[in-house]
Every structure is written in C-alpha cells, then in structure tokens.
Amino acid sequence: MPSDPGPTVDGVFYPAGTSRPLAATLTATGGTLSLTAGGLIRPVPDGFRVSERLTGVARALTLPDGGRFVTEDGSGFSALLATCGHRDRGGLMTRLEQRGRLVMVLLVALTLLLVLGLRLMIPAASHWLAHQIPPAIERQIGRGTLTTLDHGLFSPTTLPEEEQRRLSALFNRLRDTAGLPPEVTLEFRQGNRLKANAVALPGGPVVLTDEMVALIPQDDALAGILAHELGHLHARHGLQQMIRSSLWLVSVTLYIGDDAGLSDLVSGSTLALIDSGYSRDDERDADTYALALTARAGFSPGGLADALTALRSTCRTDCDSGSLLSTHPGLTERIEQARPR
C-alpha cells in the first residue's frame, strides 16, 4: 500500500546547466524529500544545500548536481524540511537579522569608537603633517587660499595707499622682530561677512580687513592683533586646521562610502579655516606669542587687551560662549589673560 504523501511546497525548478524554469513541487514522504518537475518525480539525494532564511527572500534547495528548487513559501519550506529532520538554523545573515537591535547597538558603538579614535589621532597627525610641509609649499597653499577667498568672501580694500603703507610698516616691524621671512606679507581686504577680523593664511599672507582698521585705529592695539596672527603663522595653526578638516572629510567619506564628497576637499578645508576657527589651546598660544612679540618690538603691553575689548563691544553674547562648551576661549577670559600684570 503506498504511503500517504506528506507536506508539499510549490515552486520552480532550474535543472543543472540551464536557466529554463519548470513548475515543480517539493514533497516530504516518510522523512524523504522528492521533487516533481517536468512530469518526472525524483528523490532528493543527500548532500543538498539550503539557502539562509531571510525575510522577504525566496528560499532555495540546491541539489548536488547543481539543480535548484526555488520557492516563495518560506514558512512552508521550513516546515517541510523539519518533517525530514533538517534543522533550518540559518547562517550568519539570518542570525544578524534576528538580532537587529544588537547589530544596531554594535554599529553605534563601533561608530563612537571610531569617532573617539579619530578625535585623538587626527589632531596629532595634523600637527605632524603640517611640520613636514616645506615653507615654500606652505606659502603656495596660503596664496591659493587667498585666491579662493577673494572669489567668494573678500572684496578689494578701500583703505588709502598711505594708510596701507603705514600699517605695512607696522606689520614688517613685528615680522622682522619675530624673525619671519620677508615673504610673509600683510594684505588688505574688505571683510564683508567676516567684518572686523584678521586671518593668518598658511605661510602668509596675513589678511587685515578694512573693518578691523576702522574699529581699532590705535597702533598698539593693531600690533596686538597682528602679532596674534603671526603667532598662528609661526605655529602653523592655519595649515594644521586645513589638514585636520581634510582628514575628517576623508575619514567620513570612506566610512559612508560617498566618493563624491572628496571633490569638495579643497574648498571645504579653505572654508574650515575661516568658519571653524582655531582650538582653545591654539588661541591661547597665539595670545601668549603676541604678548611676548609686541613687548620685544616696543609696543604697549596692553595693546592686545585693548584690541580684544574693542572686538567684544561689536559682538553678541556668543563672545563668551567658549568659556565652557566651545573649543574657543571666551573674549573676557582672553582679555583678563592679556592685561599687563
């Protein structure tokens, strides 16, 4: 008496060596699998392989000769295999899918570890790389940066030529006292959205805005500002900031796999120099450098404090936001440190 047929699962069968599908049925009878396709019934031999159990993905049974039975009935397929004693445990992808929350936690933890590692490594790498670049190359970077800023931020200066010569002489006095090369020059521009400001670009030049000259007409105070920028130049802070920004951009681009982000590398590092500013320690180091330099050059020791006081009068409450949470020290803190003792 023939045994009763067991559970069945409908699907399609792809014979070995062909991509032509045949309507097929997989049957379990007495613990044995058989496959009906193309009007023929064939037992499923030992050594077959079963695809992983993934949500929304068709299941497949692959025969030793390469033929494949495929079905969309994943739950019925698993139940049929269970009647034959096949343990449908799934592979790595199945276990990851079943542990989605754990995977998400691990992914977040990995991302945090990566960010913390980069926060430690990138500043150190930026400092080292900045001091490996020859001065001539650094000056080329600075000139290229100025060209970029002239196209997108600055406007030509409106200062009279006599005033420009007078301020350039003041700057040269500081530069020569500091022992910096004559290639380090002072440039004048209208700051526009940058307003009253001074910026030391890598390798020189130092850019002084018309708005800063209008705000701080006193020579001793301007000398304090320019000496501060020479402090950034001396320590290569601007170059370090550009390298640091570029390394962050490359790291994030590689992590998320967006190659298009690399095309913004140069422009992004240039804007970072203007918008992100320097770190707390960089600003303090530049202030300390400025106090020593202005004293050696014969300027009033209170010039930097006077200049910072004038700058504080033009800004909002965010002048002092750096005291706790920001990477920049607040102006009030810097003024107190810059006052003559």
TrEMBL record:
<dbReference type="Pfam" id="PF01435">
    <property type="entry name" value="Peptidase_M48"/>
</dbReference>
<dbReference type="GO" id="GO:0016020">
    <property type="term" value="C:membrane"/>
</dbReference>
<dbReference type="GO" id="GO:0051603">
    <property type="term" value="P:proteolysis involved in protein catabolic process"/>
</dbReference>
<keyword id="KW-0812">Transmembrane</keyword>
<dbReference type="GO" id="GO:0046872">
    <property type="term" value="F:metal ion binding"/>
</dbReference>
<protein>
    <submittedName>
        <fullName>Putative Zn-dependent protease</fullName>
    </submittedName>
</protein>
<keyword id="KW-0482">Metalloprotease</keyword>
<keyword id="KW-0645">Protease</keyword>
<comment type="similarity">
    <text>Belongs to the peptidase M48 family.</text>
</comment>
<dbReference type="InterPro" id="IPR001915">
    <property type="entry name" value="Peptidase_M48"/>
</dbReference>
<feature type="transmembrane region" description="Helical">
    <location>
        <begin position="102"/>
        <end position="122"/>
    </location>
</feature>
<feature type="domain" description="DUF7092">
    <location>
        <begin position="9"/>
        <end position="83"/>
    </location>
</feature>
<keyword id="KW-0378">Hydrolase</keyword>
<keyword id="KW-0862">Zinc</keyword>
<dbReference type="InterPro" id="IPR055518">
    <property type="entry name" value="DUF7092"/>
</dbReference>
<dbReference type="Pfam" id="PF23368">
    <property type="entry name" value="DUF7092"/>
</dbReference>
<dbReference type="InterPro" id="IPR051156">
    <property type="entry name" value="Mito/Outer_Membr_Metalloprot"/>
</dbReference>
<keyword id="KW-0472">Membrane</keyword>
<keyword id="KW-1133">Transmembrane helix</keyword>
<feature type="domain" description="Peptidase M48">
    <location>
        <begin position="162"/>
        <end position="339"/>
    </location>
</feature>
<dbReference type="GO" id="GO:0004222">
    <property type="term" value="F:metalloendopeptidase activity"/>
</dbReference>
<keyword id="KW-0479">Metal-binding</keyword>
